[in-house]
Amino acid sequence: MTQTAIAIRDDMNLGQLGDMLAQSGYCTDARVAAHCAVKLRAVRDLGSGPIASMTGIYIVKGKVSLSANLMAASVRRSGRYTFKVNVLTPTNCEIEFFEIIAGKRESLGVSVFTLADAQKAGTQNLDKFARNMLYARAMSNGVKWFCPDVTGGPVYTPEELGERVNE
How does pLDDT run across 149-160, given as a tens digit for each residue? Predict the structure, then answer.
């Protein structure tokens, strides 16, 4: 069996790295260098690396969407905000968002997303991954409402924009 090694170097520009990632065939939603480069640029603005861009960023209908895990990482990495999952069941997710001021957590509010909300919104994969889907929507709403500056603008999960997902 033959394996091809891919070496990502720190001195590569976006075009080179995008080309390498496209040629690898590992990124099923970005098969050309330009698509990979756009994803790489988007995640660079969030402070994450190339692998996070290829696995957690989606361009849907011209809008950048992030996986819930990438949103959560951006919140925690900010140093200004954090969150706590207060409830996570197959019927309810509640995430409390905090701003860190003078070393203390001050609550900004709670983002709640329920099974009823998900059904009304037409959320996908509820029968397979209810907790994951509720978490994703509670996280994206909380980031939009309480700490939008960590993403630099509007943020959506891929499924909010109509993309088929498998969280």
Answer: 988 766 766 666
